[in-house]
Request: fold
Amino acid sequence: MLTVYDIETDGFGSTCRLACAVSLVLPEWRLNVYGQSRIGQMFTKLNAANLRTGFNTVCFDDPIIQRLANRQFTSPSWDLLAEIKAVNDNSSGGWSQDAITKAMLGESSFLTGDQIPALFRAGKFHDIIEHCIQDVCGYARLLKEIIRRGGVVTNGIKTVKVDISVLRRHFVMPLEQQV
Reply:
């Protein structure tokens, strides 16, 4: 079981508040949406996954989820941005999920993470949830494409090859299946 996940918050740091969290369990295509009051449930499901994956989860999502749940992850994870940094001189410059998705799939998010705090303050949680769902589903499609390309990732400017050996063992979805 592979679980893709993403969270959106009202900012960064140790005092940020959760706007929403979304997980997508593959190959079942089970989508879950969580609010602040259910973050413990999300933590439990993520920690039970054979592999959890997302974009920039090591530096952003995981610390916030762990702080809100007051628990530490013990399950294995695969973070695309961390993998890119490992083969790109520890640089993440130009490597946004949106840039990679545009270059590799021709898709673009209707929002960026920078817009979320203003939407949070305006109470536009539906837009935030829609964005988070779009990010998780787009990331699942992106994983499929990265596996198809043997680990090759591009942002349209630079191309790197990441280690997908762990990802391959857990990504059991037929590559022909659409997200």
